[in-house]
Amino acid sequence: MLPPVDPILLANNPQFEALYRDLCTNKLNPDGSSGFDQKAQKERDVFATDLRTAILEAAKRDLIKSELRSISCTADTLPDELQELVAITAATLDGQVPEEDQDIVQEYVDALVENPSRVAASIERNLNKNAAILARVISPEDRMDAAYIPQTLANLRRSLATSRSDLAAARLKVTHETNMVHDLYKQIYITSIRLLEQTIHGAVSRASKAKAEYLAIVAEGMAKKLGVQHQQLLSQIYSSEMQAELRERSAEMSREKISLRRKIESAEEKLEQYRAGRGMESMADEYAEILRETARARGDIAKLDAQRRL
């Protein structure tokens, strides 16, 4: 059976695919044998039958040799004279007797061949015992009769051949399904990568990124515009004309403050003079007038200070 081939490889090579399909369908059997030359196949079948028969005959001979060796080594199985004949025959069959002694040994072998009944019965007992053991090995749960061993072995052979064929078909199917699973995984990976690329670099992502960049530019423009307006307001407030007017106003207020302080000093001097020279009658009126004048001067000074702070 040819090994499975990747479907992608077959799809990419149509001529190789045709050759592969023809070999798997028309030229080869499921077991890997050739299905093209029927005559050669029949000859191989005949040869296989002859080989199986030869193997069976050789197995029978080996089995008889083994039983003869077993009987020759087992005491109290046969009389002494038969035990000796069996031992000599087993040694002869195993090639342990030299060629110069073949003529002497052949007489013992002929004697055993002429009277094989008791030896054959002993061999049969041993074979039946071994067959019963083999039957228990083949079917440990059921007490199978030894006579059914050949049929059971044939059934097991057929079942094993069928199982091998089914296993090969299942292996081929699993291989193809594995390739299909790999293709599915490949498609999943390709789709996942495509979705990831669309998520990161797709139209929606690009639109969101462009919108964010636009809003950032707008915010930056608004900030610069507000900065310009702030500078314009500051330039309007602190213009040269406004600063000159403020300086002139400050100088005027300073002059008024000096004048008011002089008035206060003059009023205080007058108050001292009134205290020293005039009578107590008019002192209260003068003092009240001085206090009013002083309060008025202090109010004017406070107003000037407030205006100057502005």
Structural description of this entry:
The structure is a single chain. It is built from 10 helices and no strands. With 310 residues, it is mainly alpha-helical. It folds into 2 domains: 7-166, no CATH class; 243-309. The longest helix has 53 residues, at 149-201. It is rod-shaped. The mean pLDDT is 76. Keywords: Coiled coil.
Structure summary, number of beta strands: 0
Compute the number of helices. Answer: 10
Q: How many domain regions?
A: 2
Low-confidence stretches: none
Q: Which structural class matches the secondary elements?
A: mainly alpha
In N-to-C order, the SSE pattern is: HHHHHHHHHH
- How would a textbook summarize the main sheet? none
- Computed over alpha carbons, the radius of gyration is 66 Å
What general form does the structure show?
A: rod-shaped
User: Distance N terminus to C terminus?
Assistant: 108 Å
Round the mean pLDDT to the nearest integer and report it: 76
The amount of beta strand, in percent, is under 5%
The level of helicity is over 70%
Q: Could you outline the blueprint of secondary structure elements for this entry?
A:
Elements (H helix, E strand, L loop, with lengths): L6 H6 L1 H14 L10 H35 L7 H14 L8 H13 L2 H22 L10 H53 L1 H35 L2 H38 L2 H30 L1
Helix pairs in contact: 3-4, 3-6, 4-5, 7-8, 9-10
GO cellular component, one term: HAUS complex
Keywords: Coiled coil
GO biological process, one term: spindle assembly
